[in-house]
Write a structure and sequence with these properties.
about 35% helix
């Protein structure tokens, strides 16, 4: 369902929770979400959506491939 396009922060958090991540927790500069040994940094809530490029980086950091993301 979620294509690789700009996404709202609250939707990003919801999808990561569906994928089994816990959080968000307070990190040093950004909030983080965790799943086992994987820790991802969540962008701070600013105006506008999370762009496609940043979304691709976050998914790579989380070890989530495009197929798995689009199945949500």
């Amino acid at each position: 369902m979620p294509a690789l396009r700009p996404i709202k922060r609250k939707d990003l958090l919801r999808y990561f929770k569906q994928l089994g991540f816990d959080g968000p927790f307070h990190g040093s500069k950004h909030e983080i979400m965790e799943k086992g040994d994987i820790t991802i940094h969540i962008p701070n809530p600013h105006q506008g959506d999370i762009g496609r490029g940043l979304l691709v980086k976050i998914l790579h950091e989380a070890g989530i491939d495009r197929e798995e993301w689009e199945k949500l």
